[in-house]
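seq as requested:
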Amino acid sequence: MSKGARNYANQTLLQYMAQGAVEYAKELGCKHPEIVLHLDHGDSFETCKSCVDMGFSSVMIDGSALPYEENIALTKKVVEYAHQFDVTVEGELGVLAGVEDEVVAEESHYTKPEEVIDFVSRTGVDSLAISIGTSHGAYKFKPEQCTVDPKTGRLVPPPLAFDVLDAIMVKLPGFPIVLHGSSSVPQEYVDIINQYGGKLPNAVGIPEEQLRKASESAVCKINIDSDSRLAFTAAVRKTLAEKPGEFDPRKFCGPARDEMEKMYKHKIIEVLGSDNKLAQLD
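struct tokens:
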């Protein structure tokens, strides 16, 4: 979860919600649930420390906007604290453009493969978020960066820089890599939102075939939060438009939750290849 989500929902409630999710998974028949509570884009040592102290299983410290040596110093400080409590740490090299909660960047800068060995060895991070052309939010690319599909008239984004990913994997063989800002921005959700009063012009994301390719590499985590937001918003707008007299949140949040579940099942099974990966401990 992001710092903004943590502030919105209250960290104490979130902690016990995660614990409740573990118990609920057991009720559903999962003997050894693998559920994590992860901080996304922590922007300070204090934020990361607070999450470690609250029982988070992993944290991300994002010092990518800092000068290189300052990024190393901050990331190392978080790692040294978190590892005392068996909490894993994700660092970041390279800058993603876009807007998500409190993360804002006008321009992206690809990760430099020649820096990754030094960064990982000096900080001790457990995984590394990199920049290869993904970006935050539903507006990942400007129209002038895209081409137009002559059949559909929709924008087609530029390809990800897989050459950069390949070079990083050569430098760090087998090391866990993370891609942020990788939502596909499903056009069916964008269309529904726009149909029922929304305004998301030129919203475009990362094609699923590129995510499939990334998932077959050393990339172990792919962030797709914007897709869940779009699924939820589309369902809420549709329900309220079709039933304008409805005022019970359960009646429009319920279908929205179902749509999010449908979207995540599709991504997990059909795109990211992360289904059936639960450890067999018995």
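The first strand starts at residue 38 and ends at 42.
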